[in-house]
């Protein structure tokens, strides 16, 4: 007969806290945190959107619907004329998130692009934190708590939270830790060809998530390696050969895989060179590094006014306590080469993130170094404020290193140091703890669209024209098209395109200027009905013919719907009410015989 205590012993063995279970618990914690952050959107994905700006989510949902057409209909993935018809949009130059959208096709088909959007945001936050935890715990620190702290901050920093409501492509950084680690591995690789090929595959996938973040990663790796070699130049003699071979293999393989997509991006239809002037000088205020981000426990939107270009670009907000602790970590561990290299990397990109004009509390101080880099190839398409995200990752790694060093102390004061370390962590991380993203309701997609009534009017080479015409500030029409998986074309939209519609021009938001679009946008915002003359009517009809418009659609519940209805009736004649919209059938006015 077995001893009485054997059952209890077996039970304890069965529930032993293994490394695998510990890792799963950490991943579960990150997922719960991501669900907490996105909880307000999960309540009603189709009916809720970021409270401050709604354009970017509509654009991403449009791109997710495009991925459905790529998979189901074999459509060209890098360009589409389903919006901005007939000029179309260069999707490679607009971050069409194909590496995220294509795996999400089943979700988009079953539940719609709005659900896919919130799934990507949730997985982007949790996945990035989990990936950094994985790399830090396996290759940088041995203490699981240290890796968890570093992973947490990399995944849920104020910079990540600020992008979460708008840019799933930017917060989906789960490949970056592995890219960084592979770059470090190839400096001492025994199989540089294999390691270069693995790096090339990671680079290729990341290019179809977000090229800008990939460029940042490459720049950060370069600066970090230079900082290490400056301190230990003897490493170069053993590192240059495997590094050279692996980089050459990576360049050839990734270059081959990306050659055609990059050709389309830079020389294909509707390609542009350089960002719009509206965002080229986006930079961080120095004071932003000492303020908590808006979507955090200690954040205050009013206090952050003018410290960042807008609330979706709070890329530098560490809070004063974490900023001081980060500096303290560097001073404490300054004898360690890795810490000095991290500090140099973080400081370098923090400086670049200040943009062309360095400011303190919105007062310009002097010209920043970005002024001399902004016109260089590739860098002319970078938003400088986002360099602050590199500094954020550096701070996360410094936190992981510092926590491990504190927990590794074996002196008589070790317990006191650990207590102080915990207190410092709480003081640093509590003010910037993530809070649920703020959302607001948005108009539902009209039943006229969801019930497929539009199919009675719109042919394959015709457009449905939402009123107001889709633009950067009016993206509801893009959501209509996305819910049908882009079964109809629309004019206009929110995207980046060459300024004058000619490939190679500098970029601008939106397509060619539209007289009727600007007219209706003004009516929608002011509620004033303009007096139109025959010349304006003729120009408007010419634009409708250029768009091959079949119908114009105005939701009955649209803001300032009545002035809009009167204006459109003055342009093309009386409307007909169908379900919850006003419809103008203009096929007789815009057809070939008109």
From TrEMBL:
It comes from Micromonospora harpali. The chain crosses the membrane at residues 24-43, 110-133, 145-164, 170-186, 193-209, 215-231, 243-263, 316-333, 338-355, 387-407. Keywords: Membrane, Transmembrane, Transmembrane helix. Residues 35-373 form the DUF6311 domain. This is DUF6311 domain-containing protein.
């Amino acid at each position: 007969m077995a001893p009485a205590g054997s059952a209890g012993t077996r039970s304890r063995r069965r529930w032993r806290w293994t490394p695998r279970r510990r890792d799963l618990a950490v991943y579960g914690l990150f997922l719960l945190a991501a669900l907490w952050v996105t909880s307000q959107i999960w309540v009603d994905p189709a009916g809720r959107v970021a409270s401050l700006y709604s354009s970017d989510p509509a654009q991403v949902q449009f791109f997710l619907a495009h991925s459905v057409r790529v998979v189901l209909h074999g459509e060209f993935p890098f360009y589409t004329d389903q919006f901005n018809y007939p000029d179309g949009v260069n999707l490679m130059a607009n971050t069409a998130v194909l590496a995220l959208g294509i795996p999400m096709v089943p979700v988009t088909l079953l539940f719609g692009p709005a659900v896919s959007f919130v799934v990507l945001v949730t997985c982007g936050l949790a996945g990035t934190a989990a990936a950094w935890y994985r790399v830090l715990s396996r290759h940088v620190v041995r203490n699981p708590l240290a890796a968890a702290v570093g992973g947490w901050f990399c995944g849920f920093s104020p910079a990540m939270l600020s992008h979460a409501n708008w840019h799933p492509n930017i917060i989906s950084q789960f490949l970056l830790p592995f890219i960084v680690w592979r770059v470090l591995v190839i400096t001492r690789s025994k199989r540089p060809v294999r390691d270069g090929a693995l790096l090339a595959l990671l680079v290729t996938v990341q290019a179809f998530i977000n090229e800008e973040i990939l460029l940042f990663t490459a720049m950060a790796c370069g600066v970090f390696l230079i900082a290490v070699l400056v301190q230990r130049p003897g490493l170069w003699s053993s590192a240059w050969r495997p590094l050279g071979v692996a980089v050459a293999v990576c360049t050839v393989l990734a270059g081959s895989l990306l050659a055609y997509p990059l050709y389309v991006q830079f020389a294909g239809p509707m390609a542009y060179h350089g960002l719009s002037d509206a965002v080229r000088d986006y930079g961080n205020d120095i004071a932003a590094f000492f303020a908590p981000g808006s979507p955090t426990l200690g954040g205050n939107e009013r206090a952050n006014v003018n410290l960042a270009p807008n609330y979706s670009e709070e890329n530098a907000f560490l809070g004063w306590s974490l900023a001081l602790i980060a500096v303290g970590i560097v001073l404490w561990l300054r004898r360690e080469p890795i810490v000095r290299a991290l500090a140099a990397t973080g400081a370098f990109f923090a400086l670049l993130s200040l943009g062309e004009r360095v400011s303190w509390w919105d007062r310009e101080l002097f010209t920043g170094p970005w002024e001399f880099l902004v016109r260089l190839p590739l860098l002319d398409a970078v938003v400088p404020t986002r360099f602050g995200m590199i500094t954020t990752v550096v701070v996360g790694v410094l936190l992981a290193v510092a926590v491990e060093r504190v927990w590794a102390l074996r002196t008589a004061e070790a317990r006191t140091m650990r207590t102080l370390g915990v207190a410092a962590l709480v003081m640093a991380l509590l003010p910037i703890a993530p809070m649920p993203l703020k959302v607001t309701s948005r108009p539902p997609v009209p039943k006229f669209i969801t019930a497929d009534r539009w199919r009675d009017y719109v042919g394959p080479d015709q457009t449905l024209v939402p009123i107001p015409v889709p633009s950067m500030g009016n993206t509801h029409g893009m959501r209509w098209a996305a819910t049908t998986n882009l079964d109809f074309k629309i004019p206009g939209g929110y995207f980046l395109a060459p300024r004058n519609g000619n490939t190679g021009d500098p970029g601008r938001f939106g397509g060619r200027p539209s007289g009727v679009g600007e007219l209706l946008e003004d009516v929608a915002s002011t509620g004033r009905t303009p007096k139109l003359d025959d010349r304006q009517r003729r120009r408007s009809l010419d634009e409708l013919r250029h768009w091959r418009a079949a119908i114009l659609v105005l939701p009955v519940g649209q803001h300032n719907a009545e002035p809009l209805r009167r204006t459109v009736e003055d342009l093309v004649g009386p409307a007909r009410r169908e379900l919850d919209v006003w419809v103008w059938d203009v096929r007789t006015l815009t057809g070939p015989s008109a």
